[in-house]
Amino acid sequence: MGAHPQLPPPQKSLIPVLNIAPAKGWPPGGAPVPGAGLTVTAFATGLDHPRWLYVLPNGDVLVAETNAPPKPQDGKGIRGWVQKKIMKRAGSITPSANRITLLRDTTGAGTADARFVFADKLNSPYGMTLVGNQFYVANSDAVVRFPYVEGETHVTGSPTKVVDLPAGPINHHWTKNVIASEDGSRLYATVGSNSNAGDNGLAAEAGRAAVWEIDPATGQHRIYASGLRNPNGLAWVPATRKLWAVVNERDELGSDLVPDYMTPLVDGGFYGFPFSYYGSHVDARVKEPQPDMVGKAIVPEYALGAHTASLGLVYEPGLPGRASGPFSEGMFVGQHGSWNRKPLSGYRVVFVPFQNGRPAGEPIEVLTGFVNTRGEAWGRPVGVALDKQGALLVADDVGNAVWRVTVAP
Question: By residue range, what is the domain housing residue 147?
Fold first, then answer.
């Protein structure tokens, strides 16, 4: 982990390391363990696989209740059989609700006491963003938009397609996120790779492993940054005006390779996938090597640990009551948790402190306790967001809850 991780040599094996925390859900009264000086409460429970969060300007909280779409060509053969076993054990093969739910705290008590179906009949929705009176959703195959009126509890009409995103019968990394530029003139969408490490050939990776820049008015788009195996969370850092991404790196090179990471994106930058990882570390498994691309690979800014499945990302200007403390500036990261590492990694929310817009210290644990003493997953954190009061919200897709983290009284 950190700004200068020391990477071990790759370890090859016929069967990858398998170490899965079976999905169980929380026992009655169960909750994650907050870090020092923090407290956690349930903002909402009884959801259906909540993955991603977005907070509207009026304080309403949107949660994407979603899961993978059908992917008939993904994971065939022995590897596919193993993948399906892993996903089932991890609680990731339940049918998608294809719904965005609006959670409203009408009393200001820090609990959602009203909920509404904000949008439904979507296609594995994930990322969301609002620009003016246009609400954008990143489905697994397209960015779409709805007209939005502040305070409404359900969008009306059919969605308008802005642009198709790579999908198809493999669609290996199906989660697509979307964020707007600071002036709202552009959208940025994440598109994960179609394999672990180019296993399905380079043609299957066309337009993938990238962040797209999109003109929302016309749908015109270009690759903004590439070579990003599975980017998910996106966040702007105002001090530097840089767009940061959190990225899941590749598997099956041993328990300690390859670290997931977060990094500011360079316009036109290439980050290695599939030819290399963490800069110029060549992945010898790639059947169509390109040494010239390896030479262009940018070294990421900050490693987040191997196989942590870091997904959620939100920039924090300072938690209420802690403006001069450890949470005064930095990134909250939701780490969904490993399936092929011994010991387990991830299954927590961390805060990486920043100074002057760059990482400046070791990660601080914010929420832990998602795995019990028997190695079972009571919950798995995914998306993170800041509510209108500055509290941290965390989507938990195994616990089917949204948790709210504040400074302890």
Answer: 33-407
